[in-house]
């Protein structure tokens, strides 16, 4: 794995930039909008048929949850629950925090898929500064989940790449 080091608080203090975490409401709204737009094409891709498996075309059977967390301190800066899955949001958040707390797993496996009986399949991908997580239905194809994460990653970095280290928890 390529070693990379993100900006530190000390480097930002040295160059005079602010180290305060941003929590203004308009920024939070924009974070959620970026995640929602990245998820939209993949959340609608709910129809698939695999031999021997049931058809997954019920509402909420695609991408259920997306989140972005800072790599350095594992703080969730943005999260999105799709449609009918909002009642399961606490379960999604619990699983997300389990993944974030497992320092060795994330460090040793920068890209991984984990199956959880309660919430579905958890997919994540990391880069130098962030962890991008998607929770999907069991039957949802892994390649589509990672395409969704790739889309989220590119949109998120284009909109907030430099501001990630300043973001407060939840935006």
SSE layout:
Layout: H1 9-14, H2 25-43, E1 63-70, E2 76-81, H3 89-101, H4 103-108, E3 111-116, E4 120-126, E5 130-136, H5 142-160
Helix pairs in contact: 2-5
Structure description:
- The protein is of the alpha+beta class and 171 residues long.
- 37% of the residues lie in helices and 20% in strands.
- It is built from five helices and five strands.
- The chain has helices at 9-14, 25-43, 89-101, 103-108, 142-160, and strands at 63-70, 76-81, 111-116, 120-126, 130-136.
- A five-stranded antiparallel beta sheet has the order 2-1-5-4-3, with helices on both faces.
- β3 (111-116) and β4 (120-126) form a beta hairpin.
- α2 packs antiparallel against α5.
- The chain is globular and about 35 Å long.
- The two termini are 29 Å apart.
- Mean pLDDT is 76; it is low at 5-23 and 45-60.
Summarize the structure.
The chain is α+β, with helices and mostly antiparallel strands and 171 residues long. Helices cover 37% and strands 20% of the residues.
Identify the notable features of this structure and list them briefly.
single chain; 171 residues; globular; alpha+beta; 37% helix; 5 strands
